[in-house]
């Protein structure tokens, strides 16, 4: 069965630049998710342990994955089908009605429960430092229940806008901190930054670097999620079903270019923020004998702000840290509540064309996953390890994403939509970079 994202109407894409801006959105939702645990924890920890030498890892992570993301978005617009329907058509073996890629996505995403549990635990730690009268355990339970309620009641649009505003405020604070640090003993020079662009990777930093690569920038989760956000924005609906006409090709080309603009604008935003987090970690935290784990991690990272902006910035940091982490957890639940019913439909567990079935499973998963995340955090209580472990799993999932992107490109290449020499070069550079780093990291770890 082929669940479609096409409704009943088509719309020509806008022509003027400012008119196009009104249709941006999926990339900004992704940015609200991206500017989260990867930047707050994985990036700063990598900077703290590696200094400036691994700065290149962060920049490569942000830049090289966008071409893969664009290929996924392009396929969603052209086919008008959900992502797991496209995964079901990938070459390879099947097991119990499910293509290997669907099963792999299902299993690997479940393994990331530990990562999201760390993110939710980090949120509880941050807010408990603001309101220490309530224990962290109670905060974790409260945040989990609130998360479930918001998704279950479908208040996503309100929370999405609020989260984006909070992330924007935290982003401004981070950039201000980078500027302010030049007036402190922790200031860094241009030569320090250049030293991080030599593509060196010490053996003892492989695990952290691969984890950071898998979790920063557009990670495997965000690439997959992007197809669902493009669907809900209406790009495929505006394009319409491919009837082979020249009109359809013009519409598809126009909406795909808007999608590309959306992704590129978002890329510049989250790359700037990610670079800022890394430089702060490298300049302030590098040289410390150890980076605290568990409930002391957030407190240690607060020094990024207190040592560059003063002790009065502590409250702002903790408030920002909470909203950054919690908005990412919220975006993850919103994405998983779309992904898993899609998987269940392709595995034959539910009717993929039934709106009732999908809504029922959204409600169930809205309560189930936060419960699992809270339990994972309470048992481990090591946010750094939990989040970086998810990054390593994400690097494995990236290999599947890369394979799917190659198949999508060959399948849709004959349409000659939004393609050219630059697009071709960027795509294969992205494929080579992601595959090389992921395979190298997995080989080094084992």
Considering the chains and any ligands shown, give keywords for the structure.
446 residues, mainly alpha, Hydantoin permease, two-stranded antiparallel sheet, 21 helices, globular
Ordered list of secondary-structure elements with their pairings:
Blueprint: H1 17-21, H2 26-34, H3 37-50, H4 55-64, H5 66-79, H6 83-88, E1 94-95, E2 98-99, H7 100-111, H8 113-130, H9 136-152, H10 156-180, H11 190-195, H12 206-215, H13 220-233, H14 235-239, H15 246-285, H16 297-301, H17 303-309, H18 314-346, H19 355-380, H20 383-412, H21 421-445
Antiparallel strand pairs: 1-2
Structure description:
With about 450 residues, the chain is mainly alpha-helical. It has a single domain, classed as Hydantoin permease. About 75% of the residues lie in helices and about 0% in strands. It has 21 helices and two strands. The protein has helices at about 15-20, 25-35, 35-50, 55-65, 65-80, 85-90, 100-110, 115-130, 135-150, 155-180, 190-195, 205-215, 220-235, 235-240, 245-285, 295-300, 305-310, 315-345, 355-380, 385-410, 420-445, and strands at about 95, 100. It has a two-stranded antiparallel sheet. It is globular. The two termini are about 40 Å apart.
Please outline what is shown here.
With 446 residues, the chain is mainly alpha-helical. It has helices at 17-21, 26-34, 37-50, 55-64, 66-79, 83-88, 100-111, 113-130, 136-152, 156-180, 190-195, 206-215, 220-233, 235-239, 246-285, 297-301, 303-309, 314-346, 355-380, 383-412, 421-445; strands spanning 94-95, 98-99.
């Amino acid at each position: 069965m082929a669940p479609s994202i096409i409704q009943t109407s088509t719309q020509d894409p806008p022509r003027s630049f400012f008119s196009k801006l009104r249709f941006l959105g999926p990339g900004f939702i992704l940015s609200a998710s991206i500017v989260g645990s990867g930047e707050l924890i994985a990036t700063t920890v990598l900077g703290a342990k590696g200094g400036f030498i691994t700065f290149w890892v962060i920049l490569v992570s942000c830049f090289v994955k966008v071409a893969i993301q664009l290929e996924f978005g392009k396929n969603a617009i052209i086919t008008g089908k959900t992502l797991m329907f496209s995964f079901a058509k990938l070459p390879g073996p099947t097991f119990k009605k499910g293509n290997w890629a669907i099963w792999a996505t299902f299993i690997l995403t479940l393994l990331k429960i530990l990562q999201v549990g760390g993110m939710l635990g980090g949120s509880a730690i941050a807010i408990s430092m603001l309101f220490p009268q309530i224990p962290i355990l109670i905060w974790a339970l409260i945040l989990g229940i609130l998360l479930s309620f918001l998704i279950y009641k479908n208040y996503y649009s309100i929370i999405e806008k609020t989260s984006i505003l909070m992330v924007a405020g935290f982003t401004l604070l981070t950039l201000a901190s980078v500027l302010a640090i030049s007036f402190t003993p922790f200031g860094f020079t241009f030569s320090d930054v250049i030293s991080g662009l030599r593509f060196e990777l010490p053996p003892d930093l492989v695990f952290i670097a691969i984890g950071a690569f898998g979790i920063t920038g557009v990670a495997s989760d965000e690439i997959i999620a992007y197809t669902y956000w493009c669907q809900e924005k209406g790009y495929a609906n505006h394009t319409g079903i491919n009837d082979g006409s020249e009109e359809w090709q013009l519409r598809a080309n126009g909406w795909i270019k808007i999608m590309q603009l959306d992704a590129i604008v978002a890329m510049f935003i989250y790359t700037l923020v990610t670079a800022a987090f890394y430089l702060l970690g490298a300049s302030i935290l590098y040289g410390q004998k150890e980076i605290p784990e568990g409930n002391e991690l957030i407190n240690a990272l607060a020094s990024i702000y207190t040592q560059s902006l003063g002790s009065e910035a502590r409250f702002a940091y903790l408030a920002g840290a909470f909203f950054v982490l919690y908005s990412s957890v919220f975006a993850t639940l919103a994405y998983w509540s779309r992904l898993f019913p899609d998987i269940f439909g392709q595995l034959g567990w539910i009717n993929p064309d039934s709106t009732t079935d999908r809504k029922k499973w959204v409600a169930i998963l809205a309560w189930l996953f936060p419960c699992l995340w809270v339990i994972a955090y309470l048992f481990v209580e090591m946010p750094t390890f939990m989040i970086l472990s998810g990054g390593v799993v994400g690097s494995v999932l990236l290999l599947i994403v890369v394979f799917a992107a190659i198949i999508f490109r060959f399948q849709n290449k004959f349409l000659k939509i939004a393609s050219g020499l630059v697009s071709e070069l960027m795509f294969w550079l992205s494929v080579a970079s992601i595959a090389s780093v992921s395979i190298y990291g997995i080989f080094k770890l084992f």
